C-alpha cells in the first residue's frame, strides 16, 4: 500500500455524510440492549461451571454443553442475518425478530436452570443441552437483527462507530456484573 492509497482511503472515510447525528440518550438506550445481549451469555458462562460441577457431569459432557450450543449459534447467525435482511413487515425488518428472540431467549434461560440432582446425570445433561441450544437460537434471533439495527441508525460512518462504542462499553459491564451473583 502506498502513501497515496492510504490518503485516498482516509479521504473516503472522512467524506461520509454527517447528516444523521444520534442523540446520546438513544446511544445509551441502544447500549442497554447490548447489556442484555451480553448479560445472558456472561451469566451462563459463569454459572454453567458451578452447575456441571455440582451435578457431577463428566468433562466430556461439560465440553459438549459448552461446544454444541455455540456450534449451532455459529451456523445460525449468518442464516438469521440473511432472513432479517430480506424481511419486510409493518414493524420493520428487525423489530419483530428482536422481540421474538428476546422472548425465546428469556423463557429458555429460565427453563434451562430447572435442574435437580434427583433427575440423574444423563437426564440433566440432555435437558440442559436442549434448553441451551434453544436459548442460543433465541439469542441469535435477538442479537443479529439488533446489532444490524444499530448500523442502520445513521448514514455517518463516524456516528455509527460512536454508537457501537457506547453500546459495547455498556454491554461489557455485563461481564463485570455477572460474577457478583446476578
Full CATH superfamily name: MFS general substrate transporter like domains
Mean pLDDT: 87
Identify the CATH class.
Mainly Alpha
Count every beta strand, where a strand is a DSSP E run of 2 or more residues.
Answer: 0
Q: Output the number of helix runs.
A: 7
Q: Could you spell the SSE succession in H and E letters?
A: HHHHHHH
pLDDT below 50 for ≥5 consecutive residues: which ranges? none
Any overview of this molecule?
The protein has 182 residues and is mainly alpha-helical. It has 7 helices and no strands. It has helices at residues 3-14, 24-55, 59-85, 95-112, 121-151, 157-172, 174-177. The chain is elongated, with a radius of gyration of 20 Å. It starts with a helix and ends in a 5-residue tail after the last helix.
Summarize the structure.
With 182 residues, this protein is mostly helical. It has seven helices and no strands. It has one domain: Growth Hormone, Chain: A, CATH 1.20.1250.
Write the layout of secondary structure elements.
Elements: H1 3-14, H2 24-55, H3 59-85, H4 95-112, H5 121-151, H6 157-172, H7 174-177
Helix pairs in contact: 2-5, 2-6, 3-5, 4-5
